[in-house]
Amino acid sequence: MAGLPLVQPRAHSAAVMLNLLGDLWWPAADSGSTAPGTAPAQAPDWAAVMALPGVHLHCYGKTQARPGRKMGHLTCTAATLVQARALARQAAQCLGMPAW
After folding, report:
1. This prediction's pTM
2. What domains can you pick out in the chain, each with its CATH number?
3. Cβ pair 95, 24 in contact under 8 A
4. Contact assessment for residue 48 and residue 24, using Cβ atoms and an 8 Å cutoff
5. Separation between Cα atoms, residue 54 and residue 89, nearest integer Å
6. Cβ burial, residue 49 (10 Å; 0-12/13-18/19+)
7. Nearest CA to 12 among 84, 89, 72, 88?
8. Mean pLDDT of the chain, nearest integer
9. How far apart (Å, rounded) are the C-alpha atoms in residues 23 and 33?
């Protein structure tokens, strides 16, 4: 638009993205808690996730969490892809997400 030359693209760092679905706003059913719709939604423990170096939280500002609704994502960055994947797994564990 400005007519300026484009810079050559380069990889900043290895990254893995985790989608954050509305299901996270209710504790896992196997922990003895209630299912979505029977208890008020409660935001996940973002502080525990954000304490991990290289984890970046992106919430989309949606006001109502629903199961299956994409509420945001985490970007996990590290020096290598192996390290980024390990960090993503650690972040998922902090949020109670199933292992993959």
Report:
1. 0.79
2. 14-94 (3.30.470.20)
3. yes
4. no
5. 13
6. buried
7. 84
8. 88
9. 13
